[in-house]
Amino acid sequence: MAQPPPLATRPSKANSDNSTQFFGSQIGGGTVINYGYTDMPWKLMAWDIYYFFKFFWAIPYILWPLSPADSGELSELSPTLSNVWCIAIHVVLCAVQLAGILALPCLVMLPVWAAAMTVAAFLLLNKALCMLLNGEGVEYHSDPKYAPALPEHAHEQWIFINGVAAGAHWMQGNLNRLAVTFKRPVLGIHNKTAGILFDVLECLLQRNWGYATKDVRVCYSIIKQKLYNPQYSKVIFILHSQGGIQGSLILDWLLQELPQDILGKLEVYTFGNAANHFNNPHRHVRSQTLAKRNPLAASVDSTQLDPNHAHHSPVPGLRKPQPYSSPNSSFESSSRPSDAQPPRNNENQSPITTHRGNNTATTPAPLLTSSTATPHPSDFSDRAIGHIEHYAHTTDFVALWGVLHFATSLTPSPLFIPRFIGRVFARTSLRGGHQMVQHYLDGMFPLRRDPVTGELVRDGKMGVPWGAGEEGNEFMESEVLVGVGNGEGEEDGEEEVAAGVEVLGYRNGRSPEDAPPE
Hints:
- The structure is a single chain.
- 32% of the residues lie in helices and 12% in strands.
- The strands form two sheets. Strands 2-4-3-5-6-10-11-1-8-12-13 form an eleven-stranded mixed sheet, with helices on both faces.
- Residues 1-15, 302-375 and 481-493 have low confidence and may be disordered.
- The chain has a domain at 23-281 and 385-428.
- The protein is an alpha/beta fold and 518 residues long.
- α2 runs antiparallel to α3 and α6 (214-228) crosses α7.
- α4 (168-182) links the parallel β3 (156-161) and β4 (186-189).
- The chain crosses the membrane at residues 49-69, 81-102, 108-125.
- Residues 300-381 are annotated as: Disordered.
């Protein structure tokens, strides 16, 4: 079975308080994974329960740290009446659900009719409490005052699925924070909460048994319609926590039904992803074979390598996949055994440690000089879906149980590597919790503040935050090693994390192909 990833351990005090590790995307291949979502559901459930307790030390980080609430009223744990109300209801729900679960063995002492009535009363009470948190509908929209619809973004559709325990209030706060950060209206598909304990049970059913709830089916229908609509050249799909599980199910359905040329419109960005798989196959076996020959370069979707190192680097140059006139296009060496069976370690990911201060990286890295910051990155990677990136905190229990465990498992045999496609940015930070706004967005995209007073800069008319800050971002300004010099392990060059984070290009209404402000 797959071993836990090196990141999925209690952080050492010797480590930096703020560092980032980058994992290039897996390549995929012909191996059949015996520890993945295609295995027997009861086996997957057993392993999930095992790893639940293995990573149990990180449970407090779902809420910790409680401060600062840098987004003000948009932060989940800021001391507002609405937040206090939501937290109070969740505390009551946890108590009721825990009592109900512990009382289950006592039901065997009751007549069948009495036991059935007791269970029904318990479920009705739980439903009534959840109705205090959840709204009536499934579709939500960001408030226009945070980001009105603009003509220059009419070709884009932004969609968000929330995570565990988010009622209508927190869902709306997440949407508004995303809207003010990227200056686009955001459509939200509400993953309604059933209480924290029941939400965790639903996660187990969804990621191990493929159980699709109503919100999964609604979101699939919406995304399919948007992708087929010629008005949209981009569909940006943002997922948090349990939303990552639901998103992985939706992607599976899309990959089964939709033509791959329109799937190239889709870009996926996840935060604290709880899924156990993420699929994004190559369009052609040729490009997959080339990627296996050059796994380090291919794993970061690089479009070119530094020509100065073409003959000295241990990392071979990546040959960019060429356009195809037919899916059956062939090339002369595609049937050779060496192409079909690449070296075993070529299917592993390639970690690249980013650092600040005196913390240096020692892991070899591809000589990256440009990334796929284009409207359709799939043109370079030859993947079905345009682009996938995952952002995770190394102390976030949900990320440890999900993306960091499945996407970064480094084992000797490819038979034990779960299939989890997408680039991963794993951050170790003092604010490395699980909340979408307070921990992830406030850490990655802090809002603009007055340099003198430190207060949020707000729009004079609407009173809403102005947008994301352009400077002083510790995460984006941290550095990543992008060269290994002459092949003897020396550092050759560094880039800021911002140079590799695709979603950053959308900040404050820009697009990845736009030039940054002077």
